[in-house]
Amino acid sequence: MTSSSSCFFSEASARINHGGGRQVSAPAAGQNSFPPVKLQIMDQYVVVGNGIVEVNLTNPGGSMTGIQYNGIDNLLEVVKSETDRGYWDVVWKGDGIIKKKGALDRLEGKNLTVITEEEEQVELSFTRKWSSELQGKPVPLDIDKRFVMRRGSSGFYTYAIYEHSQQHPAFQLANTRLVLKPRKDKFHYMAISDKKQRPMPLPEDRVPPRGQPLAYPEAVLLVDPIEPQFKGEVDDKYEYSMENRDIKVHGWMGKDPSSSVGFWQITPTSEFRSAGPLKQFLSSHDGPTCLAVFHSTHYTGADLMVPFEAGEAWKKVYGPVFVYFNSLESEVSSSSGTGMSLWDDAKNQLMIQAKQWPYQFLGSRDYPIPNQRGGITGRLSVHDPEISTRNLPPTGAWIGLAAPGDPGSWQLESKGYQFWTEVEEDGSFSISNVIAGQYNLYGWVPGFIGDYKYGAVINITPARSIEVGDLVFEPPRNASTLWEIGVPDRTAGEFFIPDANPNYINKLYLHQEKYRQYGLWERYAELYPEADLVYNVRTDDYRKDWFFAQVTRKKGDNGTYEGTTWQVKFSLDRAYQNVNYTLRIALATANGAELQVRVNDPSSAVPLFTTGSIGKDNTIARHGIHGVYRLFSVVVPGSLLVDGSNTVFLTQAINTGPFYGLMYDYIRLEGPLSTNPPRN
């Protein structure tokens, strides 16, 4: 059965149940001019279509085998098996799972229920219940995958409800996502943002001898690609990772603007994704592949594995994601010859979907509709007496609701929902459509170190907005700044990022986001082959003289590495001996690193401070500029300092391999409080 069938009927077999859901909301004006939505059910397949799009799914598995649109019989990759074209999956660990990275479960359904079958809308539910006899095989969750098609819509919606009941065993959730694989002969041009768009190589180009594997499997040098334009480039899916707050629309277009079709994923909200607005996820990448990742440990490591205890009750709705297709009769070609109007139309569709969210037409009662949600408003300012005696507007600040915890804990929170917004210029903020529950209010402000957290737990109730009034963030500070390196923005992006080795480039990043290039960790040893970085706070410029990552140095060709020690040199007119200074070290990311701090004595067997082994972010290898934010405040006794020249030694001691290291966000030394009065 392919998705090209045009004969629609509704036929319930013995294993299909018609379930009750919410009443379908009224169609938008003009929608009745489109054909009604129709459903066709057979023993092995289900087909749902609305005259614009037709989707074929396995019965009762719920895998997408075909999508028919604009005269193309299938937009999905036809050379792959039927269950490897479009699907939901999880990676998990638990009893009986021996694979290091966990077991992959494609979440194949066992029962089909028709939730809604009306002219305006069809909603299908593919479910699977876990039982004890399945121990160690599928993930111990009850799964409900939903697919919704509406009249007049050039696409469909999909979402899923995961439930861990009191009868389920313990396990850990590592990753869950929606995977769509467009046809490689139809889709060649990828777009993930206004500035990040490009033609992509074919998947065959990654396979030897056309492709040469590099330091890890995801990175491949294209040495003999089918299309010569890609020769000499590196292809790596992590080069196209995006921050949660930016993942709203991405996808694929055809090669020829005159016949191009667009294939897009649109998510008007990120409430269901893990770890807050700065968490990085994969998006679209070579394949072609179009992902909606809801939870992963990328750029955070094992700290973001979701642990479930035996008998722990939990339920979460992931999605919905709107899978959208477009094909414009009148293309507007850019100078690069790509169908840019398809991208513009997809962005416009994002705005349409955002206005409709939270959707009122979904059939699951686990998805709260607008009158079941609440909100919060207030105003945030910053008070830092080093800068001003008056409160300051929090320029560029983000504030949000997440599960109760310590300041900054939202970075590793994944079981609940998170709701974030960027504050207005005057500090005011409003977060609406928040799912009822208990939250803490968190935030951070670029230009200031640390995390904000409102003191009380916020109880969001349906149809009510809470006003918290004027809030003041007081970033950590003991005394005035003696010197500083960098900008406190939670990234290492302001530091020196070298040009890529010309033998390992991605052309997309020659003039933007240079840190996305492959192999930059090797450039450090080329710049500092023998001695490590020495930085003078008076004369050096962190934009040119502070390497963006403190990494290991490769020793010859024997596969061994050594830790590195960076020096920060500064002068004090007078060092007060009987008081304490404070060294603030904000890290943008760490991977298997240990940062040791020594002052004026690099040979001291015991450092003044050590982080111990921290981080599994793997940001260095995955072309990132930040991972999990960490702030350390080191007490420096005045007795360690001298009048005149001083040196802080920063040692990254772990030397196991090339990807062990860290990135700094910001460093500053604060003087003793008694000698540094606040300035207006």
Automatic annotation (TrEMBL):
**EC number(s) recorded for this UniProt protein:** 4.2.2.23
Stored Pfam families: CBM-like (PF14683), fn3_3 (PF14686), Rhamnogal_lyase (PF06045)
**GO cellular component annotations of the record:** extracellular region
Recorded catalytic reaction(s): these are: Endotype eliminative cleavage of L-alpha-rhamnopyranosyl-(1->4)-alpha-D-galactopyranosyluronic acid bonds of rhamnogalacturonan I domains in ramified hairy regions of pectin leaving L-rhamnopyranose at the reducing end and 4-deoxy-4,5-unsaturated D-galactopyranosyluronic acid at the non-reducing end
Q: Which CDD domains match?
A: RGL4_C, RGL4_M, RGL4_N
The biological processes this protein is annotated with in GO are:
carbohydrate metabolic process
Q: Where in the cell is it found?
A: Secreted
Q: Which GO terms describe its molecular function?
A: carbohydrate binding; rhamnogalacturonan endolyase activity
Main location, first listed in the record = secreted
Report the family membership. Answer: Belongs to the polysaccharide lyase 4 family.
Instruction: Indicate what this protein is called per its UniProt record.
Output: rhamnogalacturonan endolyase
Q: What is the organism of origin for this protein?
A: Linum trigynum
